[in-house]
Amino acid sequence: xxxxxVVVTGPGDGDGKTTTAANLAISLAQxxxxxxxxxxxxxxxxxxxxxxxxxLGDSLKSVLLNDVDLRVAxxxxxxxxxxxxxxxxxxxxxxxxLTRAKFKDLVAEMKAKYEYxxxxxxxxxxxxxxxxxxEQADGVVLVVRxxxxxxxxxxxxxxxVARAGSRVLGAVVTAAPAxxxxxxxxxxxxxxx
Length: 193
Hints:
Layout: E1 5-9, H1 17-30, E2 35-39, H2 46-50, H3 60-66, H4 70-73, E3 75-76, E4 82-85, H5 94-98, H6 101-113, E5 116-120, H7 127-136, E6 139-145, H8 150-163, E7 168-174
Parallel strand pairs: 1-5, 1-6, 2-4, 2-5, 6-7
Antiparallel strand pairs: 3-4
């Protein structure tokens, strides 16, 4: 309760953070909450592709660099109550954008307009970007790909989140390896008496 702005991140690429952020945003919107999904990962801008927003239109980049009004840049989609602000295309230094004072003001404005603001973030290893996002958010949802190394990766990411000045509110394990089926009971052959 009380968590209006939440960063969704993971220890590396391929953990499923973008899909998890989108699914969480959709679930919250379908429950009747006004949700803004903000793509802050300039390593791929996958939310724009996931929601089929097309190449044209304003973005977080244009709001921060070109003084485009937030109301103009935010997009709607097929899900009622869900609003999107894509990262933007083209070369950009994500650290430079997210550490601007204007980004802080923008997040405050978003928190006033929406019940939830979900920030799809770069991996936790992007220290400066994580710090900038952590300063504006109420906490982090950590997304970790399952597997033999999941526990160690989650522990390292949790430490990186703490160094950024935030805390993990919860964790999601994606693509967990299937459990091996339990062995069938050994057949017992009747013994002759």
